[in-house]
Amino acid sequence: MAQSPADADARLMVGTPLAVTPFLYMLGEEEIVIVAHAGSNLSLADVEQAQALFAGDEKTVWVFDHAEDVMRFFVAGVMRGRPITPLARLATSPQEMAQALSADKKAVGVLGRRSVGENLQVVFSAGFAPVLVETTSQPEGVLALLLKCMAE
Asked: In terms of residue numbers, what domain contains 63?
Protein backbone atom coordinates (compact mmCIF):
# COMPACT_ATOMS: atom_id res chain seq x y z
CA MET A 1 0.00 0.00 0.00
CA ALA A 2 1.27 3.49 -0.85
CA GLN A 3 2.55 5.54 2.09
CA SER A 4 1.84 8.87 0.36
CA PRO A 5 0.13 10.05 -2.86
CA ALA A 6 3.55 10.30 -4.51
CA ASP A 7 4.09 6.57 -3.85
CA ALA A 8 0.78 5.46 -5.40
CA ASP A 9 0.62 3.42 -8.61
CA ALA A 10 -1.99 5.80 -10.06
CA ARG A 11 -2.90 9.44 -9.48
CA LEU A 12 -6.16 11.14 -10.47
CA MET A 13 -5.82 14.75 -11.64
CA VAL A 14 -7.95 17.51 -13.09
CA GLY A 15 -6.39 19.80 -15.68
CA THR A 16 -3.23 19.72 -17.73
CA PRO A 17 -0.38 17.78 -16.11
CA LEU A 18 2.86 19.56 -15.26
CA ALA A 19 4.74 16.99 -17.35
CA VAL A 20 3.45 14.55 -19.94
CA THR A 21 4.29 10.93 -19.21
CA PRO A 22 3.76 7.83 -21.36
CA PHE A 23 1.18 6.48 -18.92
CA LEU A 24 -1.47 9.19 -18.94
CA TYR A 25 -5.12 8.29 -19.53
CA MET A 26 -8.03 10.68 -20.10
CA LEU A 27 -11.23 9.66 -18.33
CA GLY A 28 -13.39 12.65 -19.20
CA GLU A 29 -13.78 16.35 -18.44
CA GLU A 30 -14.81 18.47 -15.47
CA GLU A 31 -16.18 21.98 -15.83
CA ILE A 32 -14.41 24.37 -13.44
CA VAL A 33 -16.80 27.06 -12.25
CA ILE A 34 -16.97 30.12 -10.04
CA VAL A 35 -19.76 29.64 -7.53
CA ALA A 36 -21.62 31.77 -5.01
CA HIS A 37 -24.43 31.34 -2.51
CA ALA A 38 -27.74 30.56 -4.22
CA GLY A 39 -29.21 33.76 -2.75
CA SER A 40 -26.48 35.96 -4.18
CA ASN A 41 -27.29 38.32 -7.06
CA LEU A 42 -23.76 38.03 -8.44
CA SER A 43 -23.25 37.41 -12.14
CA LEU A 44 -20.06 37.64 -14.15
CA ALA A 45 -20.10 38.43 -17.86
CA ASP A 46 -16.43 37.89 -18.72
CA VAL A 47 -12.95 36.91 -17.57
CA GLU A 48 -12.05 40.49 -16.66
CA GLN A 49 -14.93 40.63 -14.16
CA ALA A 50 -13.86 37.26 -12.72
CA GLN A 51 -10.27 38.51 -12.37
CA ALA A 52 -11.40 41.69 -10.63
CA LEU A 53 -13.62 39.72 -8.26
CA PHE A 54 -10.84 37.35 -7.17
CA ALA A 55 -8.24 40.14 -6.95
CA GLY A 56 -10.47 42.49 -4.95
CA ASP A 57 -11.94 42.64 -1.48
CA GLU A 58 -15.67 43.10 -2.17
CA LYS A 59 -16.45 39.43 -1.57
CA THR A 60 -15.12 36.72 0.71
CA VAL A 61 -12.95 34.74 -1.71
CA TRP A 62 -12.35 31.04 -1.12
CA VAL A 63 -9.57 29.16 -2.90
CA PHE A 64 -7.60 25.93 -2.70
CA ASP A 65 -3.83 25.71 -2.35
CA HIS A 66 -2.29 26.85 -5.64
CA ALA A 67 -0.69 23.42 -6.07
CA GLU A 68 -4.16 21.82 -6.30
CA ASP A 69 -5.23 20.81 -9.82
CA VAL A 70 -8.43 22.89 -9.88
CA MET A 71 -6.59 26.03 -8.75
CA ARG A 72 -3.77 25.56 -11.26
CA PHE A 73 -6.40 25.36 -14.02
CA PHE A 74 -8.26 28.42 -12.67
CA VAL A 75 -5.13 30.54 -12.17
CA ALA A 76 -3.84 29.74 -15.67
CA GLY A 77 -7.17 30.09 -17.48
CA VAL A 78 -8.87 32.92 -15.60
CA MET A 79 -6.40 34.88 -13.51
CA ARG A 80 -3.69 34.77 -16.21
CA GLY A 81 -0.95 36.16 -14.01
CA ARG A 82 -3.10 38.46 -11.91
CA PRO A 83 -2.78 37.83 -8.19
CA ILE A 84 -5.65 36.52 -6.10
CA THR A 85 -6.45 38.69 -3.09
CA PRO A 86 -4.17 37.94 -0.12
CA LEU A 87 -7.34 37.96 2.00
CA ALA A 88 -8.60 34.79 0.31
CA ARG A 89 -9.56 31.97 2.63
CA LEU A 90 -8.09 28.53 2.06
CA ALA A 91 -10.35 25.50 1.80
CA THR A 92 -8.87 22.05 2.31
CA SER A 93 -11.54 20.18 0.33
CA PRO A 94 -14.40 20.82 -2.10
CA GLN A 95 -16.83 19.91 0.69
CA GLU A 96 -15.35 22.54 3.01
CA MET A 97 -15.55 25.19 0.29
CA ALA A 98 -19.14 24.27 -0.61
CA GLN A 99 -20.15 24.49 3.07
CA ALA A 100 -18.45 27.88 3.47
CA LEU A 101 -20.08 29.28 0.33
CA SER A 102 -23.49 27.92 1.35
CA ALA A 103 -23.22 29.76 4.67
CA ASP A 104 -22.12 33.18 3.36
CA LYS A 105 -24.07 35.19 0.77
CA LYS A 106 -21.01 37.37 0.13
CA ALA A 107 -18.61 34.51 -0.59
CA VAL A 108 -17.32 33.17 -3.92
CA GLY A 109 -15.09 30.24 -4.76
CA VAL A 110 -13.90 27.83 -7.42
CA LEU A 111 -15.22 24.28 -7.69
CA GLY A 112 -15.67 21.49 -10.17
CA ARG A 113 -19.29 21.57 -11.36
CA ARG A 114 -19.95 18.15 -9.80
CA SER A 115 -19.27 19.67 -6.35
CA VAL A 116 -21.90 22.42 -6.73
CA GLY A 117 -24.72 21.69 -4.30
CA GLU A 118 -28.28 22.96 -4.11
CA ASN A 119 -27.39 26.00 -1.95
CA LEU A 120 -24.92 27.27 -4.56
CA GLN A 121 -25.17 28.82 -8.00
CA VAL A 122 -22.71 28.89 -10.87
CA VAL A 123 -21.86 32.49 -11.79
CA PHE A 124 -19.10 31.86 -14.35
CA SER A 125 -17.52 28.96 -16.20
CA ALA A 126 -13.73 28.88 -16.23
CA GLY A 127 -13.82 26.14 -18.86
CA PHE A 128 -13.49 22.38 -19.11
CA ALA A 129 -10.47 20.60 -17.68
CA PRO A 130 -9.46 17.07 -18.61
CA VAL A 131 -9.81 14.42 -15.90
CA LEU A 132 -6.72 12.26 -16.13
CA VAL A 133 -5.14 9.26 -14.47
CA GLU A 134 -1.37 9.03 -14.45
CA THR A 135 0.26 5.70 -13.67
CA THR A 136 3.88 4.93 -12.86
CA SER A 137 4.02 2.09 -15.38
CA GLN A 138 1.90 0.28 -17.95
CA PRO A 139 -1.30 -0.66 -16.06
CA GLU A 140 -1.90 -4.37 -15.60
CA GLY A 141 -4.54 -6.54 -14.02
CA VAL A 142 -7.25 -4.84 -11.99
CA LEU A 143 -5.87 -1.34 -12.61
CA ALA A 144 -5.93 -1.88 -16.39
CA LEU A 145 -9.53 -3.14 -16.21
CA LEU A 146 -10.57 -0.24 -13.99
CA LEU A 147 -9.05 2.35 -16.33
CA LYS A 148 -10.72 0.70 -19.33
CA CYS A 149 -14.13 0.79 -17.60
CA MET A 150 -13.71 4.39 -16.46
CA ALA A 151 -12.70 5.56 -19.92
CA GLU A 152 -15.78 4.04 -21.58
From this structure: 5-151
